[in-house]
Give the backbone structure.
Amino acid sequence: MAALAAALVGCAAPQTRQILHNRDAADLPAAAMNSDVPFIAQDDLYCGPASLAMALGATGDAVGQQTVAKAIYTPGREGTLRSDVLAGARRWGRLAVPVGSLSGVLREVAAGNPVIVFQNLSLPIAPQWHFAVAVGYDLDRREIILHSGTARAKRTGLSTFEHTWARGDHWALVVTAPDRIPATASETEALGAAAALERVDRLDAARTAWTAVVGRWPDSFGGHMGLGNTLYARGNYSGARAAFSKAAEIRPDAAEAWNNLAYALSALGELKAAVAAAEKAVRLGGGAPNYRDTLEEMRAAAKAAA
Amino acid sequence: MQIFRRFRHLFATPLIAALVFVSMPLGVAQAGLVGSDAVVAAETSQANRDAVNTFMQREDVRGQLQAFGVDPAEAEQRVAALSDAEIAKIAGQIPEDPAGQSALGVVVGAAIVIFVVLLITDILGLTNVFSFVNSN
């Protein structure tokens, strides 16, 4: 029986084999199932929009696949671009981080997060591209569970899944609410995901995300800078001052921190302190012109108020 | 090179993500503040460089460079001069521990070490193994 099991695992796709052979090292629960990921049967050609709609429904307010399709579907290609799925998730105020390994996908599922996966269900020469959502798995049964097309909680062999996923260049995207950092995200990836929310003008979601980043990585320079920027943009200048001060404490020689702190101080009416901070930025800033501009601005404001 | 193609796909996604991010224009600063995009771009670039430098300190990597006739110290110097985009390309291929720790603690397969070393030497122009690396 053990020999048969070994033989079966031997035919497995490489990452599947790695995980099943080294269950202890993989450090995954034996099984997981996220029943709170809603199932949305896809409309024709809308596997991308339906998948994103399911991920959105699991992580915040529900959005219908027709609405999602208007934002992300490319009619000329009768499909959805992966980059548009990523952008769409962010435009709806979610954290979205690519996941590159099968163990990463399973780890996110075990953490309760929906993962949108991209597969080629057919041959390389005649691809049939498809988006689905990973909602569960069972290592003992060697299965992954997907909401896929019109099939709710469809069980697929892990190895088979990996083969179809590999043909799609191992694209997967974990989607979370902005107050929740994906389980497999590095600090750098989390910074990128939070900054993206600012970029698409979801400032409340961005503030929530930056708060989550510094909660997870208390010494994150980028996290405190991002938090400061979103608080400043919302007019919360004392919050911004605290965040930029913390960033400057983490990296005393970072000109950006002192520069941004100057703006927060100035907005709070602490004009002398703002000038001092701006001077520090210039000293540390290696000649970058924007720091000089900041200093001019701060000096002018202090002079006008004097 | 079939074996390399197979491993390349393992890390294509983080590579693509890293490349897309590094090539984005810096965020527009509001009223002179340094924007979050700019801060994160700098953080990402530094994290990538740290990952590549850590990788190049590994015994097996230095051994592999020597096996290919490349002086590890020389390679280190040249890698230090690479652009953010080139560093991102290399860093994207170095397997990352899910907890985000450096690659030193991670057991890295010999084939992956060879692949990344060859990628580095290709970018440095010392070898010409991969067609996807533009040679000057």
